[in-house]
Fold this sequence. Notes:
single chain, Glutamine Phosphoribosylpyrophosphate, subunit 1, domain 1, Alpha-Beta Plaits, 7 helices, 32% strand
Amino acid sequence: MCGIVGLYLKNKKYNKDLGKFLTGMMNNMSTRGPDSAGFAIYSTERKKKYKYSICYNENNIKEIKKNLSKEIKDAKIKIISDHFVLETSLKPLKVISIIKSYDNLNLVGYGSSIEIFKQVGNPRDVVNNFSLKNFSGTHAIGHTRMATESAITTDGSHPYSTGEDECLVHNGSLSNHNNLRRTLKKKGIEIKSQNDTEVAAGYISNGLSNKKSLKDTLIDGLKDLDGFYTFISGTKNGLAIVRDEIACKPAVVAETKDYVAIASEFQAMAHLPNVNKGKIFEPEPGLVYSWGK
């Protein structure tokens, strides 16, 4: 049992409140996943700039920052708890190679729009550690984890990102993830953990790299991903949710003129403005719902 949430803002006046709204959603899902938590924030794309969300495992962040600044001349580094966001105009292929040369750094996501943060611990503590309430943006997804498939570590926490400006959170379990992992690795998709969700994220990355839309990729997944699941997936253009055709994992959507909220339970979104005036429904089994481009 895990908690998943998503929020897509239609009205720009709420962009400044995205982190505050998501904080309430994450806190209200903490009972579904007390082991760890994480979230992805999407903001307006900055042309010719890339952001790299990195977890560092040692206390020598000053030395790391100094060394990275030597290798990446226009690097801007923003430290938040045990993560930092590196911003640069240098292309991903080069920057990812540099990050991999550091044993104590773990890249958790990158792109022109996305920032990802995740930690082990009670979701309320994780949210506070990263000061989520202060973030602004256009849309976001979050996850509270009760570990079943892999160890309680940052590597085992959601969201998972295996491609530029892409991420996925998952409630459920996949039965064919080992076979899919081998297939995806042969296609060049890097999967670092033993978590089945990262395999699903890699499947989505592979579909998007083949010029499929997020919606079409998730539709294909209904026949290729065996198990029971509810996914919320994000790109820089929007969000999508899908439940498998048995749909034993819960989900509810509330759509108003100002936003779309998605969660495992309605209590996660009860604090949102005018939520009771929106269209509230359970996503149908085996259907993909998407918002944005």
